């Protein structure tokens, strides 16, 4: 037990001696700051001075004396060279500038008054010439406008004449206009054919529903007997009867051509008739 205790004491003393030697042998010193390299500020001189400044703020291509009231060095804010130099900022007298402006305004007023009195007559003459020129131009425009209106009226009249000359010659056959023999004979033959076709194709729906009535219709016929136009002037009040009348007229076409005497005078023949749908037959009248 004594041997182990001696060994432990010896080891403790040895460790203590080693730590003491390490602590006492190692020291810490403050690092010396690095010396900043020299900085060289360069600018361009805007003006050339004959003498070099005692203490230059910048390096440039030529000597230039600084000026101004700033505490620190600064670049130039303008490239213009002042005619007057001063080291302090001074207030400018506003009254002096105002007086000078007032004198200039008074001089301009005098010049304007003199010039206006001399040019008044010239302006009046110029105004009279302008009014005369405007009046002459208005008179010329009136003449031109009237000529254009006359030409336009003549053109419209020519168009109306041409349209009237091209308008088809229409003859309308009614109870009054059926005195000529050719018209009466043609109307008789046409009515006979239409009534025969109408009775053959009498609408069955009208018989079933016992629909009766009358309608007024105009049929336009060309010289060769073809239908030009069919139009109902007054409805029967029943759609079935109106459609049946239109169908009968087209079923009976084409009709007889116009007689030679009628073709020389008529381009379109209009036949106006009243169609009556009775209980079991069709008839027409004027």
UniProtKB/TrEMBL annotation:
Q: Any idea where the TonB C-terminal domain is?
A: 187-284
Renumbered to this chain, the Polar residues biased-composition regions fall at 112-123
A Pfam family that the UniProt record links to this protein: TonB_C
Keywords assigned: Cell inner membrane, Cell membrane, Membrane, Protein transport, Transmembrane, Transmembrane helix, Transport
Single Gene Ontology BP annotation: transmembrane transport
For membrane topology, the record states: Single-pass membrane protein
Q: Which GO terms describe its cellular component?
A: plasma membrane protein complex
Q: What SUPFAM superfamilies does UniProt report for this protein, alphabetically?
A: TolA/TonB C-terminal domain
Give the molecular function GO annotations. energy transducer activity
Localisation: Cell inner membrane
Q: Which PANTHER family does the record associate with it?
A: PROTEIN TONB-RELATED, TONB3
Which family is this sequence assigned to? Answer: Belongs to the TonB family.
Q: What is this protein called?
A: TonB C-terminal domain-containing protein
Q: What is the native source organism of this protein?
A: Oceanicoccus sagamiensis
């Amino acid at each position: 037990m004594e041997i182990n205790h001696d060994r432990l004491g010896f080891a403790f003393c040895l460790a203590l001696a080693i730590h003491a030697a390490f602590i006492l042998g190692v020291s810490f010193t403050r690092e010396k700051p690095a010396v900043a390299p020299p900085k060289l500020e360069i600018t361009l001189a805007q003006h050339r001075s004959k003498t070099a400044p005692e203490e230059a703020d910048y390096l440039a291509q030529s000597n230039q004396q600084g000026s101004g009231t700033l505490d620190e060095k600064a670049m130039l804010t303008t490239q213009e060279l002042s005619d007057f130099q001063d080291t302090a900022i001074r207030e400018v007298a506003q009254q002096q500038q105002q007086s000078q402006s007032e004198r200039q305004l008074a001089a301009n007023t005098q010049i304007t008054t003199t010039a206006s009195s001399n040019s008044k007559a010239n302006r009046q003459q110029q105004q009279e010439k302008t009014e005369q020129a405007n009046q002459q131009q208005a008179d010329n425009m009136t003449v031109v406008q009237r000529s254009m209106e006359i030409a336009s009226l003549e053109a419209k009249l020519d168009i109306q004449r041409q349209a009237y000359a091209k308008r088809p010659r229409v003859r309308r056959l009614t109870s009054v206009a059926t005195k000529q023999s050719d018209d009466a004979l043609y109307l008789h033959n046409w009515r006979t054919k239409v009534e025969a076709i109408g009775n053959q194709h009498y609408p069955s729906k009208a018989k079933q529903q016992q629909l009766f009535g009358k309608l007024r219709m105009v049929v336009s016929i060309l010289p060769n007997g073809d239908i030009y136009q069919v139009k109902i002037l007054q409805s029967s009040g029943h759609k079935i009867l109106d459609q049946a009348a239109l169908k009968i007229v087209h079923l009976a076409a084409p009709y007889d051509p116009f007689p030679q005497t009628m073709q020389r005078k008529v381009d379109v023949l209009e036949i106006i008739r009243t169609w009556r749908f009775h209980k079991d037959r069709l008839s027409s009248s004027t």
